[in-house]
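Final report, Chapter 2: Outcomes

The project's central promise was a pipeline that accepts a single protein chain and returns its three-dimensional structure in a standardized token representation, suitable for archiving and comparison. That pipeline is now operational. To close this chapter, we reproduce one record exactly as it appears in the project archive, with the input sequence first and the structure output second.
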Amino acid sequence: MNTRESFSPENTFEIAKEIAEQFGHSLILLKGPMGSGKTLFSKGFAAGLGIEQKVSSPTYTIMNEYRTDDHCLYHLDLYRINSLEEVIDTGLYEILESEIPCLVEWPERVEDLNKLPHLQVNFSLDLAKSPDYRKITWEWIGS
């Protein structure tokens, strides 16, 4: 398992850019409490792929798609999803078969996603260290 500490939003953004260089064709499951930096991480990951579009949380749209001439990225927020069938309806499995990177916030809502090969990124807070402190860990799970 890899671990990095972030003491600022800018640092979290840069960590995500670095991870995008290694895992730019993967399913990435982002786990952590609300406000822990999952959407900010998504912005940095997109930047690491060369995507300059504004990246925002897809809480109400469920899925956002970002494209450049060379790259594509899907970003899902499953906070309002209640079943695997709803995830299938988004087209996630077709996206993964095409090896397009996909970031998923709140994957805990659909436990079946954990059965797929993915990069799991965990975020934890420690407000005693700093309001901006984040411990970010990641590991590849699956074949």
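Archive annotation: The mean pLDDT is 91.
This record, like all others produced under the grant, will remain available to the consortium after the project formally closes.
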